[in-house]
Amino acid sequence: MEALVPVAIQLILWVLVFVLLFLAHDAGKRLVTALQKLRAPPATATFPDPNILSEFMQPYDEAELLLEPMGRYQGHEIYRYAIIRGERCRFDHISSSTIASTLHFGEYCIAPGLVYVREASSSADTFLTA
Predict the structure, then answer these.
(1) Dist. CA 105–CA 117, nearest whole Å
(2) CA 91, 96, 97 angle in degrees (round to 5)?
(3) String of b and e for 100-127 (b: at least 16 CB within 10 Å)?
């Protein structure tokens, strides 16, 4: 009987090892499945998703005052100067993107992608009196 005790303990330990291996394998499979779901977008996803407003999307700025028309783009008048957010700005270029990361500090974009840059002495009051 005493000879069976070490065999029984060894048998119990082997069973525990197999149970732990099975649990670890099962947990690993669940982890891999969860990571694959995080990585792969749904088949119907579109990028960028138009239904999600992101902090990276730049809404068009509104011009308070537009001066000196100089041309047209997509049916909109291009003005040489504009007052935007109280800043004196000069027309710089046309952008096809409204993503905020494409604009630099001191640049403003009004529809349909007209980019204006803030002038050095940007007080709107001095601009109007000049």
Answers:
(1) 9
(2) 100
(3) eeebeeebbbbeebbbbbbeeebebeeb
Write the secondary structure of the chain as one string of H (helix), E (strand) and C (coil): CCCHHHHHHHHHHHHHHHHHHHHHHHHHHHHHHHHHHHHCCCCCCCCCCCCCCCCCECCCCCEEEEEEEEEEECCEEEEEEEEECCEEEEEEEECCCCEHHHCCCCEEEECCCEEEEEEEEEEHHHHHHC
CA distances from 129 to 87, 114, 125 (A): 14, 25, 6
Instruction: Report if pTM > 0.70.
Output: no
Distance CA 93, CA 100 (A): 15
Name the CA radius of gyration of the chain, rounded. 33
| Token pair 């109007």: residue | 128
Q: pLDDT per residue over 14-59, tens digit each?
A: 999 999 999 999 898 988 888 887 776 666 555 555 555 444 555 7
User: Is the dihedral angle over the CA atoms 26, 28, 34, 40 positive or is it negative?
Assistant: negative
